[in-house]
Design brief:
Length: 585
């Protein structure tokens, strides 16, 4: 058997086993050393290929697709710095628990550390940010090696998806010549009826005695809080609202919790806690008996302060499989069980929590008062970033997704995203919270075919403009709402802005002063720049009828935006403190 046949059978058996394991989508960045993988993947009938030229964009594109579909997506690149460009998205995937199968091509061992071109150290390139690393053997094609290569492919898909999902990395050393011969007989090998590894994974569940012990700890505590942070399980919303009904407790629902939208009951959901927990006085007055949290820590910094300030209160954190996500640093009881099943078990168990009616009423009243302020129509039709989010939510199509950017965008969504019966998935890159790769991530989500609205700031848009190429290349339907305050608007809300520092604009404000419409035109998209809330709603509705890339840019002024937000928060605090004072008279 010559080199080409050996290379072909080795690679084709690996690729076929990826498909056997259920993987359907592969994002490929062109390069020479990756030729064996790229060609065999492209020839496989059960795999969709997405060609994304820039590796950093490609990795975030795969991340967005895997996040939306909640299944592994593969990445393929050549050797050298191409693989290094995957790193930011792999870090995000690791922390946000998104399954990726990263396939990097490499020089063979004899060309490493010799000064050969495009040969860098790729062994364990991503360090602890992958769940599993494998340096693949040089291609061989005897029966044992074809079993070996199927073993590794099957294990890669399995490992990326099992437990807390995340990225895995396989590094392929290939010798030249690199072009496989796809005309070989039985090129895909002897396909088994099932994947090399089959997976029968059960969900973690508390034993009856553990459930009884938890109930005993909570029975005497009536002023509890159910908190739902960022998470993606579509079954949790109904389960957690049923539990809240049984216990008669408020639910503090993060915008990424998937609890604020859907057909489940919502009268116990508190959406506006970030607004009123900004008041230190109210945080102290609302001391709970216990907190039980599902999902990651909420986006709200006000809630983080609240949790820290009540560190003496029993706090429980539920993780589906494993993990430690408790940035408040509080003494915590960890519950490792499937969140939806735990809610069901607690709902159905005898001797459950009996919530304090007055406690629940206080949270509901504060929430409604805050919502009244936040949703009140201003006398002007002028646009602020908050008004832009409110306008978006008013016209957002049912059965669609919001992919929300970091910094101010996700915080404005937290403030203005009120409970709705619409079916809305809310996605975000909140693992490492970076502004990079957001355009590509949104494109990956849009590639699944569902309507997607990407909301992000001007710096984040600028940071990943080359991600727009995939919309042009694959005619993806996506609406991008750019909130352009000409720089880093979030820093206007931080202590940096109040300090007398002549370098604030250079270091933190970072104005771009560029016209984004030309970038949109370059990639074949439509561009709109509304100047009022009514125009914005019209522009968004028009964008949802357009096939392809549609960018709606809202220009705001940082100082005015910061002042608008603070007036809202101050009015909410004043109203609630007045209500609390009258309650004690």
């Amino acid at each position: 058997m010559n080199h080409t046949e050996t290379l072909t059978r080795f690679t084709a058996n690996f690729v076929d086993e990826l498909a056997q394991g259920g993987l359907t989508d592969v994002v490929i960045s062109p390069g020479s050393r990756s030729t064996p993988l790229a060609i065999t993947i492209t020839e496989h009938a059960d795999l969709r290929q997405w060609i994304v030229l820039d590796e950093r964009s490609a990795a975030y594109f795969a991340l967005g697709m895997a996040k939306k579909r909640q299944v592994p997506v593969a990445l393929v690149c050549t050797s050298g710095t191409a693989a290094a460009n995957y790193f930011p998205a792999i870090v995000e995937a690791y922390y946000s628990r998104v399954p990726l199968v990263v396939l990097t091509s490499d020089r063979p061992h004899e060309l490493r550390d010799t000064g050969a071109p495009q040969a860098i150290g790729q062994i364990k390139l991503y360090g602890d940010y992958v769940k599993w690393f494998q340096e693949m053997a040089l291609p061989e094609a005897d029966a044992a090696m074809l079993d070996y290569v199927r073993n590794k492919a099957s294990r890669a898909v399995h490992t990326a998806n099992e437990g807390n999902p995340g990225p895995v990395h396989l590094n392929f050393p290939f010798r030249e010549p690199l072009i496989p011969d796809m005309g070989l007989d039985n090129v895909w090998g002897n396909k088994p009826d099932e994947p090399f590894y089959t997976m029968a994974a059960g969900k973690r569940r508390l034993e009856p005695e553990q459930l009884n012990q938890l109930n005993k700890q909570l029975q005497s505590l009536s002023k509890g809080l159910i908190v739902c942070g960022p998470q993606t399980d579509p079954n949790l919303a109904l389960a957690i609202t049923n539990l809240a009904e049984t216990w008669q407790l408020p639910i503090l629902a993060d915008p990424l919790s998937q609890v604020r939208a859907g057909k489940h009951t919502k009268h116990l959901i508190v959406e506006s806690y970030d607004a009123f927990l900004r008041s230190e006085t109210l945080r102290q007055q609302l001391k709970p008996d216990f907190i039980i949290r599902f999902g990651a820590m909420p986006v709200s910094k006000a809630y983080l302060f609240y949790a820290k300030e009540h560190s003496d209160v029993p706090q429980y954190v539920v993780e589906n499989v494993a993990g430690y996500r408790e940035p408040a640093g509080n003494r915590t009881e960890w519950i490792y069980a499937d969140a939806a099943l735990l809610c069901q078990d607690l709902t159905n168990s005898a001797g459950s929590v009996a919530g304090d009616a007055q406690w629940l009423s206080r949270w509901q009243t504060m929430n409604q008062t805050s919502k009244n302020h936040l949703t009140a129509s201003d006398d002007t039709d002028a646009l602020t970033e908050g008004e832009a989010i409110r306008s978006l939510l008013a016209v957002l199509p049912d059965a669609s997704s919001i992919y929300i950017g970091n910094s101010m965008a996700v915080r404005d969504l937290d403030t203005f995203f009120m409970a709705t019966d619409k079916s809305v998935d809310v996605l975000a890159n909140r693992g490492a919270n970076g502004i990079d790769g957001m355009v590509s991530s949104g494109m990956g989500a849009a590639a699944t075919g569902d309507p997607v609205t990407l909301v992000l700031g001007d710096l984040s848009f600028f940071h990943d403009m080359n991600g727009l190429l995939t919309a042009k290349h694959y005619e993806l339907n996506i609406t991008i709402l750019v909130l352009n305050n000409n720089g880093g608007g979030i820093f206007s809300f931080l202590p940096h802005a109040s300090q007398p520092n002549t370098h604030f604009e250079t270091l933190f404000g970072t104005p771009l002063d560029i016209d984004l419409r030309y970038a949109v035109k370059m990639y074949g998209g439509t561009y709109r720049q509304p100047e009022s809330t009514s125009e914005l709603k019209d522009s968004l509705q028009e964008s949802y009828q357009y096939q392809g890339l549609s960018v709606v840019e809202v220009k705001t002024e940082r100082a005015a935006n910061e002042a608008w937000h603070r007036r809202k928060w101050q009015a909410i605090e004043a109203s609630l403190l007045k209500d609390e004072a009258s309650r004690h008279v």
